[in-house]
Specification:
It is built from two helices and nine strands, in the order H-E-E-H-E-E-E-E-E-E-E. By secondary structure, the protein is mainly beta. Strands 1-3-4-5-6-7-8-9 form an eight-stranded antiparallel barrel. The radius of gyration is 21 Å and the shape is elongated.
Length: about 190
């Protein structure tokens, strides 16, 4: 009976743990977004919190940011029944707010995991020619599956590094972008409590 109480207490305390992380996350555009702006986004960050529901499952929230930018050479562009011969500047800013769930694989102190997030993305898209500018601001639904690992600094440490790759798919369909897709490469400082 005493062994069962100790085992249950240990399992309950594990389920009460949380991971909080602040990440640097560059991103690579894919498909339609890559056609619009092919440059890697080095401007990215995210903050996330995860609460363990069981020993291997957590639920949480993720808030991030990425800024894509590319300058295109002088060319002919058809805009609103007008042809323009100019250089263009293209900007896309994304701000996802996602509810996440993660499944942690194995029993060791290093925690590999897979997960998924779903929620809303605030997106600003801008196309600029000299003084002419087209701007779109939208809230769209999206999903973000990911795979990663939490690596504590030592066996007994509660602080560590969070590494993951996240595929973002936003159901967008604005201007020349049908679905907005990009990959995040996250590296962050994480704290487990």
């Amino acid at each position: 009976m005493g062994v069962m109480i100790i085992a249950c207490a240990g399992r309950q305390s594990m389920a009460q743990e949380s991971i909080w992380a602040f990440n640097y996350n560059p991103a690579s555009p894919l498909r339609d977004l890559q056609d619009y702006t092919n440059a890697t986004s080095w401007r990215g960050w995210s903050f996330e919190g995860r609460k363990f529901m069981t020993d291997n499952v957590s639920m949480g929230v993720y808030i991030g940011y990425n800024g894509f930018f590319e300058e295109k050479p002088r060319s002919l562009y058809d805009i609103k029944n007008t042809t323009i011969n100019a250089k263009s500047w293209r900007y896309v800013y994304t701000l996802p707010v996602l509810i996440t769930t993660h499944y942690y694989i194995g029993e060791g102190w290093i925690k590999p995991y897979i997960g998924i997030g779903a929620g809303i993305y605030y997106i600003e898209q801008e196309l600029q020619f000299s003084t002419f500018r087209i701007e779109e601001k939208n809230w769209k639904l999206g999903i973000a599956p990911e795979a990663g690992v939490f690596v504590p600094f030592s066996v007994i440490a509660n602080e560590g590094v969070l590494l993951n790759i996240k595929y973002n798919e936003v159901f967008y369909n604005v201007q020349n972008i049908d679905n907005m897709r990009y990959l995040n490469y996250n590296v962050g400082i994480a704290f487990k409590y």
